[in-house]
Amino acid sequence: MMIAESVRFALTGVMANKMRSILTTLGILIGIASVIILLAVGAGTSNAIKAQIGKLGTNVLTVSRQTTAGGRAAGGGQTVTGPRSRGTNLTLQDMASLTDPVMAPDVAATAPVVTAQNVTGTYKDATHAVATFVGTTPSYFGISNDTLAAGSYFSEGDASNGTAVAVIGNTVAQDLVGNSVASAVGQTIALNGQNFVVSGILAQKGSSGLNDPDDIVVIPYSAAQDKFTGYSPSLASISVQAKSADVMNQAQNEVQMILDARHNVTSANRDYQVRNQAQILTTATTTTATLTILLGAVAGISLLVGGIGVMNIMLVTVTERTREIGIRKAIGASRGSIVSQFLIESLIISLIGGVLGIAAGYIGSAFPVLGTQPEVQWWTVWLSFLVSAAIGLIFGIYPANKAAKLRPIDALRYE
Amino acid sequence: MNDAVIQLDSVSKIYGKGEAEVRALDSVSISIDRGDFVAIIGASGSGKSTMMNIIGCLDGATQGTYHLDGIDTGTLDEFQLAQIRNRKIGFVFQNFNLIPRTRAVDNVSMPLAYAKVHRKERRERALEVLDSVGLAERADHKPSQLSGGQQQRVAIARALVTNPVLLLADEPTGALDTKSSHEILDLFESLHANGRTIVMITHEADVAARANRVVRFQDGHIIEDHRVRGVHGHPLATAVPL
Asked: How far apart are the first and last CA of chain A?
């Protein structure tokens, strides 16, 4: 039996019951499309998070105050009070000590961070609730991978003198002065009622879902301390830039050695913590990988359901065409030719479903989901194609064999 | 040289076991010559359908041997039996058994597809045979667009397309009106006149009367076997009434 002939017979079979074939194909189509789209959403989210973390600076360590009393052993009734009573502040002196080229050769730059919550900016009639409010020194911009869209940063002098100037992000500028964001430079805006002159606008980083890195106001740290947090020697955190991504861990060790000595603590009772961007990136990657696997599993189940649909329809087809099988056998069809006819029929249904599903997957992935642009992974396309072929074979083999095993006299007698 | 197309030696077909044992055929021996036109008759349950299944290689014998065109069919596997059905036997059924939704020409050429004949040659041969049964102009009709007599003629064309040694017909006129029945039987006679070996199973005496030799079955045995005409249709010196 020539393969071309089996294909021709199978096509006749598929065409004989168009509606049924279309619906079965649809099951595979939906399965394949959802695999492609959901894996694309997973990949898109993962890449967006990576990109966002990258924009925040990949070589950055954040040293922050430990605000919770740690180290309480479960079941031990003993209260650890010691470390909290000692100096728990992060100070400018702490920061200065981290730029020691001998003790900390892998640290490239540092910047203090003073923050305040619920800061609202106003300009004329417009108001804007600022998401991220930072008081710092100009080195902060380099560490955070910031660039200017217009105007200039403030100077070191401004930072220590507490000059009332601000560098604002694109979102803030847009909300306050409208679309021509550059016109905000030189304007005086009010932050919680205090006047600040806008010295520069940061270039847009672009939102990628959960938070907006452009919704930011950066002012000199001393101004933040004077006007928002009340004067206190403590910083919210210190941003430390390592010389490269490869020396992040060395830089972290050096920072911890210096601060442990200065605060007179050990790794067991540290009153500060160091967050490593590389670790955050790893955590984020793991999280999104889990998410992607979950999405893929859900899609895989729908594909399985589609496959069972193919098998179901093939079984119906075999029963319905029992007599035809008997006739074919009587006029000389071998087992092999009957198997190939029905196997090719299920392959045709699932491969058409697969190809259309790939197309639907591409179309569906063109639209952003929750602010994230899905990215179709080329391997999922190949995988889907192979899986749909495999479905056709696996779910077609049983019905095809059932057909081939029919005895011609029984099949001919079937009504 | 034995010129028998069909040679059955003590063939039995037994269904069930022990108490429930049914001998559908009980030690039947018969030889059918090349070019003969034989009618197998008998009441329902007489064993004639089992006979047809065994002669047609659709079912195997429980005991005994069956030679078709000199080949011992008992030694063949399923694949070889499929080939035998394809090359040596042309089937004509009571209900025509054409493949639905498939054009007459494709129905006729189907056995050639299983014989791995090239597509173009298949079509030419199928059209030729359809022409010989008088249906050349209906080649592109589907079975549902044809009358019963026409469908049966398509089925006969399908049976003849591989040029088999045996045309095996199971109640070929059972589903047809009188006029169509006569046309089909006339067609059988002309095929026989051209040297075709035909075995026809029927329960109607007037249909059987068209054959040269009538074999009557009852309870799995041959109870009567007489020759009306010579193998090639020549009248016998002394005609034996049915």
From this structure: 27
pLDDT of residue A81: 44
A148-151 and A237-242 strand pairing? unpaired
- Global confidence as pTM: 0.72
The reply to whether A7 touches chain B by the CB within 8 Å rule is no
Question: Residue A76: which pLDDT band, with cuts at 50, 70 and 90?
Answer: very low
| A183 secondary structure, DSSP code | G
Give the pairing type, strands A188-191 and A194-202.
antiparallel
Q: Which band of pLDDT confidence, cut at 50, 70 and 90, is reported for residue B18? A: confident
**What integer is the mean pLDDT of A273-278?**
83
Nearest to A332 among B93, B97, B114 (CB): B114
Q: Which of B88, B101, B151 is the best mutation test for A, with the most CBs of A within 10 A?
A: B101
Confirm or reject contact between A325 and chain B (CB < 8 A): no
Answer yes or no: do A412 and B86 touch at CB < 8 A: no
Instruction: Please report residues of A whose CB lies closer than 8 A to that of B100.
Output: 324
Smallest CA–CA distance, residue B84 to chain A, in Å, is: 7
What is the length of chain A? 415
Confidence of residue B238 (pLDDT cuts 50, 70, 90): low
**Chain B interface with A: residues with Cβ < 8 Å:** 53, 56, 58-59, 78-79, 82-83, 85-87, 91, 93, 97-102, 110-111, 113-116, 119, 158, 162
CA dihedral (B204, B206, B208, B209) in degrees, to 10, reads 160
Separation in Å, CA B55 to CA A229, A337, B153, B203:
105, 23, 22, 18
Going by pLDDT thresholds of 50, 70 and 90, the confidence category of residue A73 is very low
The answer to whether the Cβ–Cβ distance between A332 and B56 falls below 8 Å is no
| Global ipTM | 0.91
The residue among A198, A188, A111 whose CA lies nearest residue A152 is A198
Residues in chain B within 8 Å Cβ distance of A327: 97-99
CB within 8 Å of A30: residues ≥ 6 apart: A302, A306, A357
CA dihedral for B161, B162, B164, B167, sign (positive or negative): negative
Contact at CB, A328 and B114, closer than 8 angstroms? yes
Task: Return the structure tokens found at B40.
Answer: 């197998």
Average the pLDDT over A368-372 and give the result. 80
The maximal CA–CA distance of chain B, rounded, in angstroms, is 56
Contact indicator for A235, A113 with CB cutoff of 8 Å: yes
Cβ atoms of A320 and A403 within 8 Å: the answer is: no
**What is the residue-averaged pLDDT of chain A?**
85
Q: Torsion-angle region of residue A123: left (phi > 0), alpha (psi -120 to 50) or beta?
A: beta
pLDDT at A271: 84
Phi-psi region of A203 (alpha: psi -120 to 50; beta: other; left: phi over 0): beta
At residue A210, the pLDDT reads 62
Q: Which of A1, A324, A412 is opposite residue B116, by nearest beta carbon?
A: A1
> In this predicted structure, which of A14-23, A74-83, A359-368, B213-222 has the lowest mean pLDDT?
A74-83
User: How much is the pLDDT for A360?
Assistant: 95
Query: Both tokens of residue A25?
Result: 């194909």
The backbone region for B171, taken as left when phi is positive above 0, alpha when psi lies in -120 to 50, beta otherwise, is left
Which among A193, A181, A201 is positioned nearest to A121, based on CA atoms? A193
